[in-house]
Amino acid sequence: MIKGVNHRVIEVLESDCEYFERAIFFVKPEYSALSEGTLRDRAKAVARSSSAPPPSQILRSRFSAIAALLSAAGAGAAICAALQTILR
């Protein structure tokens, strides 16, 4: 149970994220004197910037990571093959 809490709260309903419908921000006491418009604008900006990337972008980044690993494995195999022919 929380007792004696006195905070300003900003609720953002337009988070632009498919996973979350709203975000709730607790304003630090030293910034509670700012106007509600300023605080709401800042909260919306933070909520928008923290949204997850779209699934297509996640898939693309995973594909490029797998391609990089396969390229490195191929290069390692080529180097090993070259060293085996040189050392024989």
Structure in words:
The protein has 88 residues and is mainly alpha-helical. The chain has two domains: 1-52, no CATH class; 53-88. The protein is 53% helix and 9% strand. The chain is built from two helices and two strands, in the order ββαα. The protein has helices at 36-49, 55-87, and strands at residues 9-12, 23-26. The protein has a two-stranded antiparallel sheet with strand order 1-2. The longest helix is centred in the C-terminal third of the chain and has 33 residues, at 55-87. It starts with 8 loop residues before the first strand and ends with a helix.
Write the layout of secondary structure elements.
Elements: E1 9-12, E2 23-26, H1 36-49, H2 55-87
Antiparallel strand pairs: 1-2
Order of helices and strands: EEHH
- What order do the strands of the largest sheet run in, or round the barrel if closed? 1-2
Radius of gyration: 25 Å
Number of strands: 2
Supply the number of structural domains. 2
Q: What value does the average pLDDT take? A: 80
The end-to-end distance, rounded to whole angstroms, is 75 Å
Q: How much helicity do the residues have? A: 40-55%
Shape: rod-shaped
- Count of helices? 2
The share of residues in extended strands comes to: 5-15%
Poorly predicted regions are: none
Structural class: mainly alpha
Q: Report on the biggest sheet.
A: 2 strands, antiparallel
